[in-house]
Amino acid sequence: MAEIAGPGWYQFPMNLEYVDPAVLAELREAVGADDDGASALGRPAVRAFEQRHGVVLPEPYRSFVAEVSDGSKAGPPDYGLVGLEDLPADYGSDGSERDLARPFPLTEPWLWEGEDDEPDEARLRSVFDDGSIVLGTDGCGMNWHLIVTGPHRGHVWMISGEGAMPFGAEFGHTTGEPGFAGWVRHWAAGEEWFDAG
């Protein structure tokens, strides 16, 4: 069980190593996946991906792509959940610079748009390319990432051309639960992503 905390945030435990079968069933229903898992990758393909990239995907996402579905046109987000090996059409690069094993560099929101100084290019590149897989896009370069390495492993982040912020009630801006399951639940309930005052 991993605990994530930061300045001013309470600790919220997330189980990233085990998936409750009921949670997996809930995710299947939320994205409208086939019950036979025909679009799922299977455990051997997921393990091969993890070995190639030097990571272990956090649960419940790991079991979701292995047993339920590798992507979903229905969503989340607005333009659908992309496959494990894919990037949204509007990603802006071919992904060749991405390094999933290198830790994701942030633990707090970062809004670089409007800063007085230009953002550090190496840090900015790391935010987009290190320690995360891209779940999908809401268009206009607003991409959702699942963090797979670093202190925020298991959390979902919105990363756009203007800034990056974690999803989950303890981080503000939303009433949703953190992590992949909380992110999917929030979408399935028809809630706005940023629904907290």
TrEMBL record:
<dbReference type="Pfam" id="PF09346">
    <property type="entry name" value="SMI1_KNR4"/>
</dbReference>
<protein>
    <submittedName>
        <fullName>SMI1/KNR4 family protein SUKH-1</fullName>
    </submittedName>
</protein>
<dbReference type="InterPro" id="IPR037883">
    <property type="entry name" value="Knr4/Smi1-like_sf"/>
</dbReference>
<feature type="domain" description="Knr4/Smi1-like">
    <location>
        <begin position="32"/>
        <end position="186"/>
    </location>
</feature>
<dbReference type="InterPro" id="IPR018958">
    <property type="entry name" value="Knr4/Smi1-like_dom"/>
</dbReference>
